[in-house]
Write a structure and sequence with these properties.
The chain is mostly helical and about 120 residues long. The protein contains 5 helices and no strands.
């Protein structure tokens, strides 16, 4: 048999076959795998990326201290204004401000948790 005839025979035979169908569980499994991969915690990052992120965070925390330490703040109007606001507004009300910050943080966490659970319920799996 000529190779071209064999090729035509195979082509006709394959054309008569039905299209292959993916199993119904394939799409949800792929979507779960993609969402797990996209929601990786920091501990699962590659070690070099963790080191780079940590170094960047330390650098960002260190730079302002260096910049502020080189400036003579004594007697500047900015320092005097900051001291005034601290002594007359913040210091006497520090307990109330801390409580308000704590309540705001707790409410924010609850709202984020509620929104997260609502979004998770609506996602196709």
């Amino acid at each position: 048999m000529d190779p071209r005839d064999l090729e035509a025979l195979i082509d006709r035979s394959l054309a008569r076959l039905p299209e292959p169908q993916a199993p119904p569980s394939l799409l949800p499994a792929v979507m779960r795998a993609v969402s797990r991969r996209n929601a990786r915690p920091w501990q699962l990052w590659p070690r070099p990326l963790q080191a780079a992120a940590g170094a960047a965070a330390l650098l960002l925390a260190w730079l302002p201290t260096q910049a502020l330490g080189r400036w003579d703040w004594a007697g500047t109007p900015l320092l005097q204004a900051a001291e005034f606001f601290w002594l007359f507004f913040f210091a006497p009300n520090a307990v109330y401000l801390a409580a308000a910050a704590g309540v705001t943080g707790a409410v924010s966490l609850l709202v984020c948790a509620a929104l997260s659970s609502l979004l998770r319920e609506g996602s196709p799996e």
